[in-house]
Amino acid sequence: MNFAAGRITLPLAPALLALLVLAYLLPGLVGHDPWKTDDAIGIGIVHQMLEHGRWIVPYLAGEPFLEDGPFHYWIAALAANVFGLVLAPHDGARLASGVMMAAVIALVHLAGRELYARTEGMSAALALLGCLGLLVHAHETLAEISMLAGQALAWYGIALARRKPQRAGWLLGAGLAVAALSKGIPAVIAPVAVALAVPLVSEAWHRREYLLSLLPALLVPLGICGGWLAAAESRAPGLALAWWQANAVRFAVPPVETLGYWAQTLLWATWPAWPLALWTLWEARRRTFEPGMRMLIAACAASFGVLLALDAPREVYGLPLLLPLALLAGAGVPSLRRGAANALASFGVMSAGFLGAIMWLGWFAMMTGVPSRIADRFSKLEPGYVPQFSWTAFAVALAFTLAWLWLVLKSERSAFRGVTFWAAGITLLWCLAMTLILPWIDYGKSYRPVAQALKKHIPAGTRCIESRGLGEAQRAVFDYHAGVVTQRLELRAESRCPLLLPARESPTAPARAGSSSGKAAGRATASASGSTRNNREQAHPLARLAGPCGASEADRGREPERAVRC
User: Fold this and answer.
1) Which of 263, 397, 399, 424 is the least crowded, having the fewest Cβ atoms under 10 Å away?
2) Residue 476 · residue 40 · CB < 8 Å
3) Count of structural domains, the chain
4) Is the model's pLDDT at 509 over the cut of 60?
5) 96 in the same domain as 222
6) Mean pLDDT confidence for 404-425
């Protein structure tokens, strides 16, 4: 920073960049319940590790969850134990995501610096911070976050191999091991393919030393993952084969609709990395592509190929593409035309300023009731929510807002303004959401009241409870908040328990694949009901928790004691 002139020099000084990264990572990790997302699934797996000792293979509500490996949940469970005296287990577990995301950003910076120079490395880190598809997932208990850390380490290892091939081989192997233990085979296909093909892409890697470095790069993940599978097989024979099959069924020939889905999803999820990456390629079109650019193009192509081959596409599957795309985007930021840089900076400032002002106005309306129309709107969206003023949340939100204004008003004109202002704007909006309106969001996304009411209405001495159509997030939070582990009817032909917990399936929300059944049941709505299985045809009191209930056509007149649905 140029203190004499009172201006902030760009790219940001390391200390300011570190503060921006911390402001991005820390809000949202603590202070709220597991939400109705993949975060609840991750917390449920950590709960099974801590309370039931299921450390080798991830378990969700008593069933093996083979879509994910155990690595991220090991770190999350360790964090929950370390901070158990001051934080709730779900808050402590989320700190693992913060640590892994810090590693991802640092490794992207190092990879960009290795492929190009220091400024390109910082630009790549800022481009990654600004990606819209990363924002929410970076603060969830999600195995994909550790997968990103492993992949980022692998990309850095490949980039480093030009200078220090021996060290790079071990780093590449460690990165592949972390990625595989986080998300299985799909997580390592792109890095392995690029590592093997990069000598053909550029002569910079076409060296004997690099080829020798591939030996530890391949042996390390094979040894570590093989040891883990052996340990899993010793605990439960057949589990290694089940893990392999669970990974194999995730691949399929993509239908035409998949291309349309990814075109729409990646258009916003990878913003602003994709236009910056296109500029990098356009700016270099009249000269021979540099070795680093060739390697990144191969990485983007391989990552996108894996993306298309995965069955049942979900937005979170696009996260691996962000890493090579951000690195490619960072390479073009220093040469960005002033008009383009100013346009991105203006768009970032206006978007963050407008949406930030709306958040402040919404918070003020909830606290004071003025304007009444906005206050009524918040009340209708979350009926029953009673706002409470917090000096801490107000002070932190105000500090973030003033810091953002200081950055915008005091930064010098530079090609780095666009990517810096965009990343800072995204950080501001997330900080405001996680301070000013976090209690309101948590009120609507938490399953705690439903889970506790469920536990209250379960008759004493109930030996087991079956579920039908419950989503994985629901089953996870029922286990975490209420200690209720349901046995899914989808996995057996006949019922064996005295209680049934059904849920109306949502036709628009696909399930997350990977539980022991291979395909999970359709995601269910938050409303759930229970019914006793007896001859008295009397609905269990739990049926009244979520409002009016009715019998389905299939149930009506056939199984009266199971006809209650919510």
Assistant:
1) 263
2) yes
3) 3
4) no
5) yes
6) 95
Question: Residue 137: left if φ>0, alpha if ψ -120 to 50, beta else—which one?
Answer: alpha
Helices 89-115 and 71-82: angle between axes, nearest 10 degrees: 120
* Residue 356 exposed, middle or buried by CB count within 10 Å (0-12, 13-18, 19+): buried
Please state whether the peptide bond connecting residue 272 to the residue before it is cis, i.e. omega within 30 degrees of 0: yes
* SS3 (DSSP) at 392: helix
Q: Residue 360 corresponds to which amino acid?
A: W
| Spatial contact of 134 and 152, defined as CB atoms under 8 Å apart | no
Whole-angstrom distance, CA of residue 422 vs CA of residue 407: 11
Using a CB cutoff of 8 Å and minimum separation of 24, what contacts does 361-370 make?
Answer: 362/436, 362/437, 363/397, 363/436, 363/437, 366/437, 366/440
Nearest to 560 by CA among 500, 487, 513, 488: 500
Q: How many CB atoms lie within 10 A of CB 313?
A: 19
Handedness of CA 14, 18, 21, 23 (dihedral sign): negative
Domain shared by 176 and 115, yes or no: yes
The pLDDT value given to residue 523: 31
User: Are residues 159 and 51 both part of a single domain?
Assistant: yes
SS3 category, 465: strand
Whether residue 327 is contained in a domain is answered as no
Q: How far is CA 200 from CA 195, 197, 281, 284, 289, in A?
A: 10, 5, 20, 20, 14
- pLDDT reported for residue 461: 78
* Of 459 and 179, more confident: 179
With beta carbons less than 8 A apart as the criterion, state whether 107 and 145 touch.
no
Range(s) of the domain holding residue 402: 338-445
State residue 540's pLDDT score.
Answer: 35
Residue in the structure block whose two tokens are 């009244």? 544
Distance CA 413, CA 410 (A): 9
Measure the N-to-C terminal CA separation of the chain; round to a whole number of Å. 59
Token duo for residue 439: 């209690």
Query: pLDDT band for position 500 (50/70/90)?
Result: confident
Residue finishing a domain among 445, 479, 514: 445
Q: In sequence order, which residues have a C-beta less than 8 Å from that of residue 385 and are 6 or more positions away? A: 378, 379, 439, 440, 443, 444
Residue (of 218, 208, 212, 194) closest to 295 by Cα position: 194
| Per-residue three-class SS string for 521-543 | CCCECCCCCCEECCCCCCECHHH
- Do residue 380 and residue 471 come from a single domain? no
